[in-house]
Task: structure prediction
Amino acid sequence: MVEAELPEQGVVFWPVGTGDSTTIVLGDGLVMQIDLRDMKAADEDDAVVAAVIDRLAETLPKQPAGEAPYLALFALTHADKDHCCGFGDLLDSPIHIGEIWATPRLWRERDEDTPMCEDAQLFHDEVERRVKATIEAVKAGKEPDSGDKVRIIGYDDDRDQHSYAALPDAYFTTPGNPISTIDGNDVSGRFEAFVHAPFRGDCAGERNDTSLALQVKLTSEDGTEGRILLLGDLAYPTIKKILDYSESHDRTERVEWDILLSPHHCSKKVMYAPGEDGAEELKQDILDQLKAHARPDARVIASSLPFRPSDKSGDNPPHLLARAAYETISELPVLCTGEHPSEDDPRPAVFVLEPGLGLDLVATGELEEKSVALAGRSGTLLTALGLTHSVPLEAAPDVPQQRGIEAGREAVRQARGDEAVPATSVGFGDV
Result:
């Protein structure tokens, strides 16, 4: 076999119904999980949603100082059930979580008796435990241990009323600042998370409006970058504020994107909002801005159930109106996790950072073939994460395989030649 392994950096979008579960692989044994939706339905024989925790437990690298599967960081955008479902099971699993990122909204909700699901309450309890452990470690003149680390992202006017206020400034990050340290590891050469929100002025707003919003930048050894916008469940007003602020402060690179995880599971509230007369209208300005900051071959992801044939007033996302709008700002079709590669058998959408090329969607079949071929050798974490169904782990014959982007290009060449404008996306696993 010609060894042509998948790069060690990339991102996985799991099929979890209408909810979010995003895994980012930084390399060198560091993995980041943003949000979680792991449902009991994942254990059924005919499941069309992923058992995310099981897959992580099976495939994560081992803890540096032990044998536990090691998740360097877990970040929660906000405390809705479709973003934290299964967090209690994650705590009960053998997975070691080095660091947690949380927003101040958790404490406000607890004080105001805002209804929270059980997993959100367990998340808050774990964050509180880490806050206390960090304060104790600092008083003792040392850094908190991996497993106790916490970072509070955002600001709230009632900060002084809560335990996290006693944390040193090093454990806070406010919008407009980057983060390049994960669980005590300096990853500035290959990873950076730039914080866009929650804004201070939104601290008392609705839960969705206080979502953690990040631009994640991955950088390969040769300097190739991949940029991912993760905006939680934000809607038009806050996303417009993020874009306007970045443009007016000459930092448009902070809103550039190769992948946009469509906010609120492809909700039309991103680009439809009340006009001057109070009626809902399309806001072309935000689409123009998103398009202006899209990098070549940019793609939008809808982490959701399959789209309905048509939408009715009052339907929850995903919305066909939003899908149609997004497809005006990118040459590639929206990738729906519930439809990739098919509705009957969805698999994780795996993007790898290809040196010299950027973030590339790997065909599902290639992941399966590579998993078999590399069994017992040196298969990568991204390959393993890309499989939700069992693949025989016997050694396979030495058969050379094209890499994802080359396989895609060959399919394009065969279908239309190199110069023709594509009518549909070919070779990237879309239906």
